[in-house]
Amino acid sequence: MPIDWDKARTLAYEAGRAAAGPAEHVALAGADGRTLAEPLVALADLPAFPTSSIDGWAVRGEAPWRPIGRVLAGSTPPPLTEDGTCVEIATGAMVPSGAAALVRVEESARDAEGRVSGTPRPQPEWRLAGDEARRGEELLPAGTPVDPAVLGMAATCGYDTIPVRPQPRAALLVFGDELLTSGPPGEGRVRDSLSPLVPAWLRRYGATVDSGAVLGPVRDTLEAHLEAIRHGLAVADVVCTTGGTMHGPVDHLHPALSTLDAEYVVNTVAVRPGFPMLLARVAGPDGRPRFLAGLPGNPQSAVIALVSLVAPLLAGLHGRDLPALPRVELAAPVPGRGGFTHLALAALDADGRRATPVGHAGSSMLRGLARAHGFVVVRPDRQAAAGELVSFLPLPLSPGERP
């Protein structure tokens, strides 16, 4: 019995979350794209000392002030102990104790004897110790994706390494004697479009895919399938296969999984396109669980399986939350698919709030996919009308791509 699409996403995510690896400490330079395995806490007050926000003068007492020194960033100044004195101070420098105010250099003047005059602004021109955070305060929770802003925050706090989840490794096995790896299709053979497509999106979902982890075409025999799957399980945490998910004369995936004593997490999903997809848990050579995601052979169906099962699985393995689906307004009606969820390719407008279904959306086609930003989600036994708000399953986009 096919599993409801929303339930299948949840099962895939929960399987990944349960198998997420332990924390490992990684240098900041290598942590981009990973996930915090523990909360990021402030190692010191931020800022750690009163810090000047301006170039100017740190003053004590009433004007005019007699300069007695200079404070640059990176130094520890002596206190100001005498009224009527000041020190020149640079932005980012530590404010000396005893200073009553800061005066901007552009709002100050010096007389013939070099004394400084000016009027401090009503609001203090420095950051007090702990203005941003106090030592021990949680700044970011576990499960936060690490991006450049997180790296900058960690460095500001004094971290050299941060605790992150291991980055999942992925492999792709392309099944099918009918596949060509170069040149145009013809004479009963079709071009393999999934070898370049699937690894690229796996990487955008945060997996690593080594050059030796993409194999195919794999011959349509049980022995060849088993050999390829065992290789994939030895080098990856998630093995994606394409084709062979049904029970036809050359569909050897299910017998191979039986031979490997695999446990199905999901076996077929009530979604169109993409119905014959699966996710199985397999013991790896080291005893740790590995996963095999069976993607259909038709290209768009394979992508739908990727975004429906593999993306939630990888989110779980990363230790992240399962992303919520945004809502968009439909620009045109989208039909339902009976008791199945319908994932309909759609392009978003410039602000990402309105979705227009695209053509060439058959399960074997990629033309529509190349113009789409994701899929409109039409729930079972429903139609979606123009102007209706519906869930949207986005494709992973590169940085800088819209929307």
UniProtKB/TrEMBL annotation:
Domain of life of the source: Bacteria
InterPro entries linked to this entry: MoaB/Mog-like_dom_sf, MoaB/Mog_dom, MoeA-like, MoeA_C_domain_IV, MoeA_C_domain_IV_sf, MoeA_linker/N, MoeA_linker/N_sf
Keywords associated with the record: Magnesium, Metal-binding, Molybdenum, Molybdenum cofactor biosynthesis, Transferase
Keyword Plastid: no
GO terms, biological process: Mo-molybdopterin cofactor biosynthetic process
Residue ranges of every copy of the MoaB/Mog domain listed in the record: 171-316
Claim: Metal-binding is one of the keywords in the record: yes
Pathway named in the protein's UniProt entry: Cofactor biosynthesis; molybdopterin biosynthesis
Catalytic activity as recorded in UniProt: adenylyl-molybdopterin + molybdate = Mo-molybdopterin + AMP + H(+)
EC supergroup of this enzyme: transferase
GO molecular function terms attached to this record: metal ion binding; molybdopterin molybdotransferase activity
Stored SMART domains: MoCF_biosynth (SM00852)
Cofactors required: Mg(2+)
EC number(s) reported in the record: 2.10.1.1
One cellular component (GO) term of this entry: cytosol
CDD domains: MoeA (cd00887)
PANTHER family with a match to the protein in the record: GEPHYRIN, MOLYBDOPTERIN BIOSYNTHESIS PROTEIN
Function: Catalyzes the insertion of molybdate into adenylated molybdopterin with the concomitant release of AMP.
Name of the molecule in the record: Molybdopterin molybdenumtransferase
UniProt source species: Pseudosporangium ferrugineum
